[in-house]
Amino acid sequence: MRAFDQALPIVALLAAAPAAAAGHLQHYGFAVVDCGWDDPHDAEPRTRYTDEVDCFTDTAQLCVYDSSERVAGRIRLMNLAGILPILHVQGVLFETTETGVRLRPDYVERWNRFRDLNASALSADRVGAFYLVDEPVLNGLPPGELAAASDLVDADYPEIPGMVIEAADTVGDLVVPPSMDWVGFDEYGIYDPGTDPRYQEHLATLKARRSTPEQRIVMIMDAQWRPEYLLLGWLPETMAEVAANYHAAAEADPDVVALIGYLWPGGLDLPEHLGARDLPENVLDEYHRIGRSILGPRPDCPVSHVLLFDPISTYLVWDPVPDEAGAVYDVTRGLVSSLGAGPLGTDLGPLVCIEDDSPDRSSETNRDAARPPPEDAFFYLVRSEKGGTAGSWGTDTSGGERGGEGGCPPVP
């Protein structure tokens, strides 16, 4: 798992959170969803992909690169989409030197600064985990420095899991601090982790390296296609079978708490690598199936999966409401800072109409050139109208009815 340049929050989609998983496998998501990486395999400049995964995941990697970053808005945007982000805070606590990754001398001061700036969003109901550092042994981090960082974060947020992922070949040297909650390793080119001897050996080694019986396993799923996979006989379509095998292995292992695909956008490790979002339809269908299996269905997703494009002006593309031929759609915009508590559920605050009674599935002809104020962010909401009746504003994560004022003109 990697980290990249900062991305600023501009827009988000309101959606209900998926139902919590009932078994040991509680979480499902992808890496590099909000890490400042622009996939080179599409023509649209974008670095945030929450809207592409919100219908079938409940967690996603959100990268932090400096202790002075204000990420509460980015966290809230993921929360509004039903996602608890995995905050990658390596840039806050660690630095890369000539001898490898090291704990910063001022790591306590930097952590306290980051914590205080983002205190409003750092809670267990908003953050899924803290991803402290990537592959610490491979990158030469002394065990004591990993423990110091883990202890510091755990002291402030014992209810939020701390997480570390090691490289497969160095997992035998990983020293897991007792304050760490989730551990994992990454290994790629494995068709079936449930039966592959080398993978199973690494998994057994990781489990033996745990320092407490409560520590859980994060399984990193191979979710990108590389040209060298042709030597294994794998086409891009083969990644659907790989995903199904990872899911089966995660379901079969009671120690696994999360299944995380590396990675969502492509072109990161090498330009020719295809990310999960670049793979064929059969693979994407499998990723959706896995999410529904682990988390349950998202009833609002047929209309709520909105794609966001272009850093200069924004337009939305959405899926139609099933069995609602002839429906038209209103596209509205609000400010995250205006969200509050209403009589039944979330109060959306004042809403601005972007497109009224759209007959198609896009607001491209009514692009929104507005930008949010500093330290704030926009959200967009699409609702249907048919036969003189408008759809609701939906429900929030607690099941309460959303309310708002303004927006597009009412149905005549």
What order do the SSEs take from the amino end to the carboxyl end, as H and E? EHEHEHEEHEHEEHEHEHHEEEEEEEE
Look up the CATH topology of the largest domain. Answer: TIM Barrel
Distance between the termini: 52 Å
Overall 3D geometry? globular
CATH superfamily of the largest domain: Glycosidases
Name of the CATH first level of the largest domain: Alpha Beta
Strand order in the largest sheet: 1-2-3-6-7-8-9-10
Uncertain regions: pLDDT < 50 for 5+ in a row?
1-20, 302-310
- How many beta-strand elements? 18
Number of continuous helical runs: 9
| Tally of individual domains | 2
Percent in helix: 10-25%
What does this structure look like?
- With 412 residues, the chain is an alpha/beta fold.
- The chain has 2 domains: 27-295, Glycosidases (TIM Barrel, Alpha-Beta Barrel); 303-406, Immunoglobulin-like (Sandwich), CATH 2.60.40.
- Helices cover 21% and strands 24% of the residues.
- The chain is built from 9 helices and 18 strands.
- Strands 1-2-3-6-7-8-9-10 form an 8-stranded parallel beta barrel, surrounded by 5 helices.
- Helix 7 runs parallel beside helix 8 (281-295).
- The longest helix has 15 residues, at 281-295.
- The radius of gyration is 21 Å and the shape is globular.
- Residues 1-20 and 302-310 have low confidence and may be disordered.
